[in-house]
Design brief:
Layout (H helix, E strand, L loop, with lengths): L4 E6 L5 E7 L3 E8 L2 E8 L6 E10 L9 E10 L7 E9 L4
Antiparallel strand pairs: 1-4, 2-5, 3-4, 5-7, 6-7
Length: about 100
């Protein structure tokens, strides 16, 4: 079996994030660390070819086109700037980047 390596990437809580990573990277997990959202991906450390993968965060109760995206997970942040006290984001990956 080939060697693998796991990297984490911070994502923005605001609409879109584009991340350059090796092709064929495998999504593992979405979680909050130090009150910031991150995603973990497994890569082939020898892969030189890269691709830009695009992610979008949607808030609860907002409308969007699901046909062009794949759900990865949700996260919750404690947010003093938000008058509700918490921010809940739902992360999707645009299908064009898969």
């Amino acid at each position: 079996m080939k060697n693998r390596i796991i990297y984490k990437y911070q994502i923005s809580r605001f609409p879109e994030t584009s991340i350059s990573m090796p092709v064929n990277s495998i999504f593992l997990r979405l979680a909050v660390q130090d009150n910031e959202p991150y995603m973990w991906f497994m890569h082939d450390p020898e892969e030189k070819e890269r691709t830009d993968r695009k992610f979008i965060v949607r808030m609860t109760g907002k409308t969007f086109d699901l046909a062009e995206s794949r759900y990865l997970g949700s996260f919750q942040l404690e947010d003093a700037d938000n008058h509700w006290g918490r921010f809940v984001g739902h992360v999707f990956e645009f299908e064009e980047s898969l």
